[in-house]
Amino acid sequence: MHELAIAQAAIELAEQAARGRRVRRVTIEVGEFSGVLPEALSFCFDLAAQGTLLDGAELDLRKISGLARCESCAAEFDVSSELATCACGATCLVYLHGRELNVKSIELFECD
Ligand SMILES: [Zn+2]
């Protein structure tokens, strides 16, 4: 499963950053067009975190909605689909937001 691999990668990254401390919360930005289902990612995260420094850690998923800029007229507008077109008729869009898949922050327990 796609989301399981992503969850495992995020957990690995957080464990490295934690250096043996327990992780309280991981914030991940998930773009609307990233191809990741937040619910599935959340489920896989809890599963993959078992027995790691992230066992019981909270997963904070921030959904990022789509924003595109038209290559033709430079208008910026919200998009809900990657098949969107500009009001001017152009189809060549640059996606400024919506494809994110980032581990944004990792919060550790300060003391044991
Ligand atoms: Zn345009």
Gyration radius, in Å:
17 Å
- Uncertain segments: none
How large is the count of helical segments?
A: 2
Number of strands: 6
Mean pLDDT: 94
- Widest beta sheet: strand line-up: 2-1-6
Q: What fraction of the residues are assigned to beta strands by DSSP?
A: 25-35%
Bound molecules: zinc ion
Shape: elongated
Just give the CATH class of the domain at 2-65 and 98-108: Alpha Beta
What can you tell me about this protein's structure?
This is Hydrogenase maturation factor HypA. Belongs to the HypA/HybF family. Keywords: Metal-binding, Nickel, Zinc. It holds the Pfam family HypA. The structure is a single chain. The chain has 112 residues and is of the alpha+beta class. It has helices spanning 2-18, 38-49; strands spanning 23-31, 58-64, 66-70, 76-79, 93-97, 101-108. It has a domain at 2-65 and 98-108: 2-Layer Sandwich (hypothetical protein PF0899 fold). It contains 2 helices and 6 strands, in the order αβαβββββ. A 3-stranded mixed sheet has the order 2-1-6, with helices on one face. Strands 4-3-5 form a 3-stranded antiparallel sheet, with no helix packed on it. It binds zinc ion. Zinc ion (ZN) is lined by residues 70, 72-73, 75, 86, 88, 90.
Keywords:
three-stranded antiparallel beta sheet; 2 helices; hypothetical protein PF0899 fold; 112 residues; alpha+beta; single chain; binds zinc ion
Outline the fold blueprint.
Layout: H1 2-18, E1 23-31, H2 38-49, E2 58-64, E3 66-70, E4 76-79, E5 93-97, E6 101-108
Parallel strand pairs: 1-2
Antiparallel strand pairs: 1-6, 3-4, 3-5
Helix pairs in contact: 1-2
This protein binds zinc ion.
Zinc ion binds next to loops.
